[in-house]
Amino acid sequence: MAQLVDETARTKSIVLDVPGWAGHRAGQHVDVRLTAEDGYQAQRSYSIASAPEDGYVVLTVERLDEGEVSPYLTQELRTGDELELRGPIGDYLVWEETLGGPLFLVGGGSGVVPLRAMLRHYVAVGSAVPLRVLYSSRSLPDVIYRDELRQMGEEDGLDIRFTLTRQQPAGWDGYARRVDLPLLAEVAFPSDERPLTYICGPTGFVEATAGGLVELGHDPSKIRTERFGATGA
Amino acid sequence: MAISRGFRGRRRTDVDPARVPPGQYVTGDFPVLSAGPTPHTPLADWTFEIRGAVDEPRSWSWDEFLALPSQTPTADIHCVTKWSKLDTAWRGVSVDTLLDGVETAAEYVLAFCDGGYTTNLPLEDVTGGKAWVAYEYEGAPLDPEHGGPARLLVPHLYFWKSAKWVRGLELRDDDEPGFWEMYGYHNYGDPWKEQRYRGD
Description:
The complex is a heterodimer. By secondary structure, chain A is α/β, with parallel strands linked by helices.
């Protein structure tokens, strides 16, 4: 483990130097396994936040207070500690330029992590595929990769839009509501352009967004999703 | 096996460890994992089919399906994303009932679903009281997010084999990989052998 970076109050990026890493594709994940002194083990999956071109493996982990692995990774882990990884895993929630576009990335909360890998990959390969990004957070301090995403917007000209659902700072010029049908109608590519869409986030967010796009006429087979968390019931 | 410095873990003392496969943790929640949008097929358009290498294909409408004899299995379920949930209660039709009297030499089934999802299983893993097509969960109609109106229930394998929104079983002589089986996951998926990914 090479470095820890504070992203928000609840999330940290873990920069890993993985000997023999065979490379990954943007959107894949790894399994992290922790072992206690008595042999007890716990493992969880985390999306890779870095692009294949970055040359290192970054995991961005959100601390779940009731969790078992994320509190350790965000509060206990120190530079120089070793971490047992398995991966990369998953060949479905992956974007590569050969898959084309237009490309629409929609993230909710820490669901932005695999999308950030895709964005870094998009920039690294100099892709000309039309791209739009919509990222929903509770408030500005909850926005992960805030400076980097703004920079991608300003310097690389990427169309990255933010919505803050609970609290907006004075002078906020982004969206200020949950991702709903009118917002999707405004931000998404028209369905007849047959965009390829990736949606990652909490279950309710992904259900609403994916369902909304289908309602707007988007082909369900071109919408790839990754959900986390339980149903409300 | 490297020790993770300072890691103690949160062991549950209220769970019989013999019921939890290796690498799994027990949750009271019911997480949702799906590869795409949740389909909402009207029940009037819903059918369940047995097709493929059979002497005669079969099909049931929703009402006909509900009229079939049902069972109420209680099972522990294990998701490849590491969570397990104990004592889940379902109502559904045993696959034995659906295949009763079907003549086939097939050794595999491919479950097919609304939304294009598929998963493959050996025929012997869905017969002999091991699999159901479930339409109620904990006494209520199965939520669309969890696979309603009906999902396959094959609790002895990782839960991606319990295909959501299932619309039928195709009996096959050959073993055709399903959706996750093509995208890097294990072909069989026994949680007790931790067969999560290709090559396990």
